[in-house]
Amino acid sequence: MSEVFLPQAPAPISPLARLALSVLGRPAAQPVGWRHGAVLDHAYLAARMAAWAGMLERQAGRDFALYLDDGLEFGAALLGAWQAGKTIWLTADTLPASCASLAASVDGFLGEFPAAQAPLPVPSGGAPLQAWKALDDDFPALVVYTSGSTGAAQAIPKKLSQLGSEVATLQQLFGCHAGGAAVVATVSHQHIYGLLFKVLWPLCAARAVHAHSVDFPEPLALLLGQGPCVLAASPAHLKRLPDHLDWSGARAQLRAVFSSGGPLALDSALAAGHLLGSVPREIYGSSETGGVAWRQRAQARPDDESWQAFPGVDWRLQDDGALEVRSAHLADTGWLRLADRARQMEAARFQLLGRSDRIVKIEEKRISLSAIEAALLATPLVTDARVLLCDGAAGERQKVAAFIVCSAAGRALLAAEGKLALNRQLQLALAGQVEALAVPRRWRYLEQMPINAQGKTPQALLLALLAPADKPRLPHAQLLESDTAAAMPRLLFELRVPANLFYFDGHFTDAPLLPGVVQVEWALHFARQHLDLPAQFRAMHALKFQQPVLPGRLVQLALEYDALKASLQFRYLSDAGQHASGRILFHPQAVAVPGDGADTPTPAASAC
């Protein structure tokens, strides 16, 4: 399925410094993208840009945090903010810790931040700027954050010239494949990869985009078959594409598939190519470096794991194997040492050998966390492993913690003999391969590694699974969609089920599952926060639990309320399919105030 890559001369694109002027100069009726199936044109985008620019011109301060799920509205806000002379700070989420970090650096919040951050309201309209202008290359356009997958997230400033260089490079390399194809994404534009592939590059190339990221494979399969398109995804999404869905439309319409956020295993790359008709082009880079290199795997070359540097990116190796790069994507012209090790291959390509910054010291001994992970992955009990150093109790040395996704054999052992038996088996497998003090003392067994919207596993998410204290009774929740003004109001939440959830205790000891009664209670809890629901429970209908929700699982909760029938329908879904569904019926006489039931037990618990 691999395609022969023959670079051509793609059509010229708008320079990023003049992008706002280019948008204003395009035919007003030319489509810019789709939102919920409705076509939006450049006249709409220009009006939204003017609304954001007009609002931000009246705001004091230069630095503003922006969070919007809608990619087209995000693009309008970004271009409007730049015209108003504002620097935009991006965050991958709106969790309290992220907001607290931003609050120390920005002058205000824009978009869908929690009320505690007092975000400025999304402007509904506004007078155009007196004069739209081209921006200077040195304009401080963005501050992005590293993913936090190997430590605390770091803020990285980006000048407009750096972003413009990246867009031009993508067009030079891949513009001949993308052409006029629409852009579909499963990743968020709140990270540098999604920002480039879903917002900046399409806008500069006048390529239409689907405003919302696609979370599940069923709607993705349908969307990819609707017309010529390219897909921007992550390894986490591509390796979980179910082969029972009909991907024939995608195979007919997809022009290219891109993947970034981590390496894609050969079997996953080829499997995705078989389903989608195009083997993914993997992009190697980071928030700090921008794009560095790319590759496309091939069945005929299964041992070739090498990467080809982007045009204009120079690279070299230090004596210790550390990779250094130099390019216009960086803040200056100097060489930047990366945490990745590499070796030179033929044809000026390089192969990555893992990270060099995963060497830690425990009692003055140097320990390779990567080596521990490799030893765990070599056992037949493990399919994925992450190892971190965590603080011990007061007065104790630091300890190694292991986060494990079990194979079928590992799950069978866990179910039959329990966690301690599996701990012992893995500790024995490590004996003789790693120092005794480096053998993990804390173990967490997960259905899958927790990931954020970029498909990454930040270290903070893993360390949160070790938190001992008061065990939470609610998931980490984020409201993705809200349409409470419709005849039948709808809500969509993303829920991350903590591994230390209170309700996992005793249900069951060796193989914890989220109880069905808790799933019903959560549906009520989050519905009452946003909807006027009757106070008195009446009945449960069509209650089904198709597959269990396990610790660490990322699920979506879809709610729909029919006021005429006093009926709340709920569904729990994930990339594995539907987990549970049902309808909660109420007596319609009395209506509760939203939020009243948040801390009060409801009749639903006894009804289950």
Structure in words:
This protein is about 25% helix and about 30% strand. It has about 600 residues and is an alpha/beta fold. Strands 8-10-11-12-13-14 form a six-stranded mixed sheet. A six-stranded antiparallel sheet has the order 24-25-27-28-29-26, with helices on one face. A hairpin with a 5-residue loop joins strand 17 and strand 18 (about 350-355). Residues about 1-10 and about 590-608 have low confidence and may be disordered.
Question: Quick summary of this structure?
Answer:
With 608 residues, the chain is α/β, with parallel strands linked by helices. It has 16 helices and 29 strands.
- Main beta sheet strand tally, sense and closure: 6 strands, mixed
Taking all Cα atoms into account, the compactness measure Rg is 25 Å
Order the strands across the largest sheet as they lie in space.
Answer: 8-10-11-12-13-14
The helix content is 25-40%
Number of alpha- plus pi-helical segments: 16
Which descriptors apply to this entry?
26% helix; 29 strands; six-stranded antiparallel beta sheet; 608 residues; disordered N terminus
Give the topology.
Elements: H1 19-25, E1 31-35, E2 38-41, H2 42-57, E3 63-67, H3 71-83, E4 87-90, H4 96-103, E5 108-111, E6 140-145, E7 155-159, H5 160-178, E8 182-185, H6 192-204, E9 209-210, H7 217-224, E10 229-233, H8 235-238, H9 248-253, E11 254-260, H10 266-276, E12 281-286, E13 290-296, E14 308-309, E15 314-317, E16 322-326, E17 336-344, E18 350-355, E19 359-362, E20 365-368, H11 369-377, E21 382-390, E22 399-406, H12 408-417, H13 419-430, E23 442-446, H14 459-464, E24 476-483, E25 490-496, H15 516-530, E26 534-545, E27 554-562, E28 567-574, E29 577-591, H16 604-607
Parallel strand pairs: 1-9, 3-4, 3-5, 4-6, 8-10, 10-11, 11-12, 22-23
Antiparallel strand pairs: 1-2, 6-7, 12-13, 13-14, 15-16, 16-17, 17-18, 19-20, 21-22, 24-25, 25-27, 26-29, 27-28, 28-29
Helix pairs in contact: 2-3, 3-6, 5-6, 12-13
